[in-house]
Design a protein that fits this description.
Number of strands: 0
Number of domains: 1
Structural class: mainly alpha
Largest sheet: none
Distance between the termini: 65 Å
Strand content: under 5%
Helix content: over 70%
């Protein structure tokens, strides 16, 4: 059986020293493959913590925190990291999350109303388009805001302008992420009941990872531009990410 031992203990191909680092979709695919098991467990945690409904925004914010760690290739201790993040962001994420849902819901209702009027007269098409653009901007801003809440201790009132700036300066990555998340649920609906277990297996955690992947460069850049911003920079930052913020952030 020496041949089997030698085959199992053989050296792998390794990584070339000068190999370029992956970026974009190849990097995202690498992260998904590397963290597949953790993403499955994270999905179960999100589903479990969303059961009381009122905890849903905080659960998704905590998932964004874990997703940000995965994107940064930090060590992830799933239960500890998720629990700490959930407790730390609960109040801010709950207020911001339900406020964002109300704003987006009103925007969608306005799109529906103006859209119905546009069917009767083209004169209303402009108003419908404006409502649609405003609603999409609000949704993108909400995603950036939740990611900022997950990775910073600042109050929502200070993070909201940064989220709006990120949405204005870098709208395309988050738009693509939202399109991917929407596609996941469309696939679930189209192939039901074959896709019955998709939400329990991947939809929530994969969506959180993709949103973190899309928004993290913009939010990190904006936080870093603010002196003393409590951003996460290394693999040991988990124990300090929710420590007391600098005096200027209080």
């Amino acid at each position: 059986m020496d041949w089997l031992t030698n085959w199992m203990m053989r050296e792998g191909p390794g990584i070339e020293k000068d190999a370029p680092k992956r970026t974009g979709l190849p990097l995202l695919g690498e992260i998904v493959l590397r963290e597949a098991w953790e993403l499955f467990k994270l999905n179960l945690l999100i589903a479990l913590f969303c059961l009381p409904i009122v905890t849903a925004p905080a659960a998704h914010a905590a998932a964004l925190r874990v997703g940000a760690s995965m994107v940064r290739d930090e060590n992830v201790y799933l239960w500890r990291d998720f629990r700490q993040a959930f407790r730390a962001v609960f109040a801010r994420a709950t207020i911001a999350g339900f406020a964002a849902m109300a704003v987006v819901g009103l925007g969608l209702y306005a799109v529906f109303v103006w859209g119905q009027l546009a069917l009767t007269s083209p004169a209303y098409a402009g108003a419908a388009a404006i409502c649609l653009a405003a609603t999409l901007f609000a949704l993108i801003t909400a995603c950036h805001l939740m990611l900022l809440i997950a990775t910073s201790e600042r109050p929502v009132s200070r993070l909201l302008p940064l989220a709006a700036m990120a949405s204005l300066a870098w709208p395309l990555p988050m738009t693509g992420a939202l399109g991917f998340v929407g596609a996941l649920w469309v696939v679930h609906a189209l192939f039901y009941p074959v896709s019955l277990f998709m939400p329990a297996v991947a939809n929530f955690s994969l969506g959180a990872l993709v949103i973190a992947f899309a928004g993290l460069p913009a939010t990190t850049r904006l936080l870093a531009s603010q002196a003393g911003a409590p951003t996460l920079r290394d693999g040991n930052a988990q124990d300090r990410c929710f420590a007391s913020a600098p005096a200027q952030d209080q």
